[in-house]
Amino acid sequence: MLPELKIAQLRHFVWVAELQGFHAAAEKAHRTQPAISLSIRDLENKLGQCLFEKRNARAARPELTPFGAQFMVYAKELIAHHDRVVNDMNLIAQHKSGHLRIASVPSIASRLLPDILARFIGDATDLHVSLFDDSSEAVLAMVENQQVDFGIASLWEADSDICFTPIWADSIGVVCRSDHRLAGEVELSWQQLRGERLIANGTSRLLDGTAAEELVADSQFYMSNMISLLAMLETGMGITTLPRFAFPTEHGQLRFIPLSDPRISRDIGIVYAANRSLPVAAKALFEFILRDAELNPARADNDSV
């Protein structure tokens, strides 16, 4: 059976050799000189070889044996490897190292995550992040296939192995050109949209099961891509419904008007596998997002925006 070498003993050995004395090594280790001598003797017993030449003069500087000189190289390698592992694990434990993989619906990925990630990561240069933005269905698929640590989505299956923690409430509104006849309204009811040319999109399903679901059935166009949808709206081809987070606030040509009758909002939250623990960095980000939502309730509840 191989001997178990203690890192502390290896350090004592290296310090005695490099500092050329047991007393100096004892000071560096904050131990007594007899304790260092005992540590070296125990190490020699484990190795079955002497590390230092035997000297009669107590003041003589310790001199490595040929075996000790060879062992010195391995001792330093073991210490360096140990310190690297401990340092890496410490960084991972503090979510300052590793690889964080998350998927999110585009509205949160573009509107909220940049600020959240900037504050979460801080100066942690060894923490790598991969962010995938896609539809809620695609986000759920990536979580189920273990392609990401967790996802941020608005749709989830209650009877699946995916857990859902709601974070943000995202209200639905009407988007039209700023010169549209409805642009001056503070709120709109779905009846006011009758007769308008409607452009459906991936979020239009949120109207299903509500008084406004006929708007989806009456839509003349369907656009799956946000860039194409905005282009159609800019040309005045019609109006659409969107969650507020999905509406580009910097867009000067378009106007967002809350839909008040019916008042609809979608819950957006974190989705993750129920039977798998989150990696350290992912768990830390999860908890950071929860705390951030508690500290910024107005941003978490977009109905109040």
What brief labels describe this structure?
alpha/beta, Arc Repressor Mutant, subunit A, D-Maltodextrin-Binding Protein, domain 2, two-stranded parallel sheet, 11 helices, 10 strands
Question: What does the model show?
Answer:
This protein has three domains: 7-93, Winged helix-like DNA-binding domain superfamily/Winged helix DNA-binding domain (Arc Repressor Mutant, subunit A, Orthogonal Bundle); 98-167 and 268-304, D-Maltodextrin-Binding Protein, domain 2 (3-Layer(aba) Sandwich), CATH 3.40.190; 168-265, D-Maltodextrin-Binding Protein, domain 2, CATH 3.40.190.10. The mean pLDDT is 87. Helices cover 40% and strands 21% of the residues. Helix 1 (7-19) crosses helix 4 and helix 2 packs across helix 3. Strand 6, helix 8 and strand 7 (221-223) form a beta-alpha-beta unit. It has 305 residues and is an alpha/beta fold. Strands 1, 2, 3, 4, 5, 8, 9 and 10 form an eight-stranded mixed sheet that branches. It has a two-stranded parallel sheet with strand order 6-7. The protein has eleven helices and ten strands. It has helices spanning 7-19, 22-29, 33-47, 66-93, 106-111, 113-121, 136-144, 214-217, 226-234, 280-295, 297-300, and strands at 97-104, 126-133, 150-153, 162-177, 188-189, 199-201, 221-223, 240-243, 254-261, 265-273. The chain is rod-shaped.
